[in-house]
Design brief:
seven-stranded mixed sheet, two-stranded antiparallel sheet, 11% strand
Amino acid sequence: MDRHTWMYEIGRATFEFIDSLDEFITIAETDQLEKENTIISCPCKKCKNARWYTDSTDIKNHLIAHGFMRGYTCWSFHGESLADLNPSVSDNDTDNEEDSNNSNNNVNFDDMFDDLDMEDNVADKNEDKDLHQSKVCGTSRYKCGKPTDNVDSDVSENGPPAKLFWYLPIIPRLKRLFANEKDAKLLRWHAEDRKNDGKMRHVADSLQRKNIDKDFGEFGDEIRNIRFGLSSDGINPFGDLSSHHSTWPVLLCIYNLQPWLCIKRKYIMMSLLIQGPKQPGNDIDVYLQPLVVDMMELWSTGIHVYDAYKKEYFQLWAMLFCTINDFPAYGNLSGYSTKGKKACPICEENTHSIWLTNCKKPAFMGHQRALAENHPYRKKLDLFDGTIEDKKLPPPLDGETTLSKVANINVVLEKKGFGPPKGLLLNIPGKTKDGIKLRRDMELMNIRPELQPKDIDGSSTKFLPPTCYTMSKVVKTKFCQCLHGIKVPSGYSANIRNLVSIKDLKLLGMKSHDCHVIDPDVLDEYQRDIILTLYELEMYFPPSFFDVMVHLVSHIVGEIKACGPVFLRYMYPFKRYMGILKGYVRNHNRPKGSIVEGYASEEVIEFCTNYMDGFKSVGIPQSRHEGRLSGQGTLGHKTGYSNVADYQEAHFNVLQHTTSIDPYIQEHMSLLRQQNRKKSAKWLANQHKKTFQNG
């Protein structure tokens, strides 16, 4: 009986299965003695070689109860390798006998990625559970809602509309990351090769990282343990600008790596893809369940992993260091309402906001609370709301207090909002925040009487006095021309020239940029400057300008102190990566399947190229600045040939000096001599040059 048959086809209560199982246990125990291990991994469907036991009887009982994990016909965790197996014995885990006989000529990705199987993590179709799954190319596809027989149906029979999502397990991919010697060495960088001079360049320099290593000493002592960053946002897989379709990938980056590698395509792992057309919203926690299960295992028990760099097995743990989102997605993932008068998740109930009656929106002001108690701005009655500000800024909540507040929370989810923020300085039509409603709110607040609406004789129209920041067309033109002509060092910021429209006199898609090296000693000074700047803006800009996004600037220094430089926690690299995911779509009828297939294919290719010399990584593009420091020019440099004749000459010379082509050269010359016996050697050589490439 071949191995696949007794492992997967016959009953586990038969004598044949028990006898063969005893042989497996003997091989496993022999491997344990040879490697001088005290534990053996269990390959049952539940443990999947991720749990280890000292007693082989426990493993035997697991295998009888649950059976072997899918595709484990090569017992690689118990002393075997593919080279040890006879091709006739090692099959491709398929019922097709012809495919099994041809296994020498085809790469068996089921064996290579046997751990990418989640079939036992969800319920069978006949059980009334919350999740339904079908296998898709080494990933797992789930459906939320009551299970149905048709996995492609969007509506369940007795429940609300269902939504498909794909889960790509992270545990086997971490194992394969450490199985590569180069990657295993890179994952040690944060502890062994990071420059430690007191400056902040990486999340490893942050206070939160140091506190984690201190409070969880066993986790911090093993430098190979993984610190993840999680990012998610919606994309339109069809590539257009329509917002009617939103598919959500959930991405993980690894903070063990160098700063420039953390956010590179190769080391960003897509763990989930949640199908549109609607965004998951506050239900995203349902779709995150498979990832949460894996993360809990990585934190609580860890997994047994082979380190190819150190040539040893070790127990790997992992944790989620931070999440990276825009503000609406942050609200979905955290469960905190980021809308309304208490929208700031740092200030919470201490958020200082006022309601603008006419604009029908909250304004987040009162930043003078962070100033010194004797600061003169606290007594400027006419600049804010006519009152002296005597309150102090409350201290931020610590982790234990925050946890106690949410431990038994009962969340009622609902949607309400106030629309996106709009422009102000350039007074762009349809986007300005200044208007009659705002001026009336300022009148109710009894501030800035010089800006209150004025009556026009004989007309019902109100005159709005110009503000100090109102710009004429001439001034706008000069302002835009100034930005259009700015030149900055390479890599310092985006090309601002491309973000300025001289014709329309407005800015397009401008992003902020973060410093990559931070001196912690100056952060408190920066915080004072930020608060002072915000309050001085309150003196001149209208209350409607101060939405929650402006207020959050006051917390950015505290965030940097806790988590490190912002550029490693920006959404920008993940937005770029999501653009790559959209490029995988080839079938617009199945966009999500196309993304999963394209992503999985690229990951397999990256895995293979790690073991092949001379191949460049797809996920780590070559920098366009490479070579500049050594004097090699790149701007405007193009490689080409002056004419077709030069190209053909170069091509011919390459062929003539290629050893493998030499037999064909000799054959071609012999044929020319036979057909042209009266021609000279010079003529034959010229004819050979003209006709050899075409033959």
